[in-house]
Design brief:
single chain, mainly beta, 5-stranded antiparallel beta sheet, two-stranded antiparallel sheet, 9 strands, elongated
């Protein structure tokens, strides 16, 4: 399994404290069991997010989407009848504040 994370980059037209990030997770086709009697398909999953630290000190916020395209894929398997699918799309948002 390979992960490629793009370095956070400033967003055009935004303060330098606003960053966009992306991650690509990919896996090639692989044997489905010890005897390689079948193969599991490969997959590619894209995740992206945005985070910012506004001018007010002590405040940070962010949002992200995992599995942006809501792709269904096989995350792990030990046999034809024992398959775990990868997580579906999820959206997260957060705010941090210093007290």
């Amino acid at each position: 399994m390979a992960y490629t994370t793009l370095p956070p980059a400033p967003c055009a037209g935004r303060p330098p404290s606003t960053r966009l990030h992306a991650r690509v997770q990919d896996r090639t086709s692989r044997p489905g069991d010890d005897k390689a009697s079948f193969r599991a398909l490969g997959y590619g999953v894209l995740s992206a997010g945005l985070e910012s630290t506004p001018s007010q000190q002590g405040l940070r916020w962010g949002a992200g989407v995992q599995n942006l395209a809501d792709r269904r894929y096989v995350r792990a398997l030990t046999g034809a009848d024992n398959v775990w699918q990868g997580p579906r799309r999820s959206v997260q948002a957060w705010v941090e504040s210093a007290l």
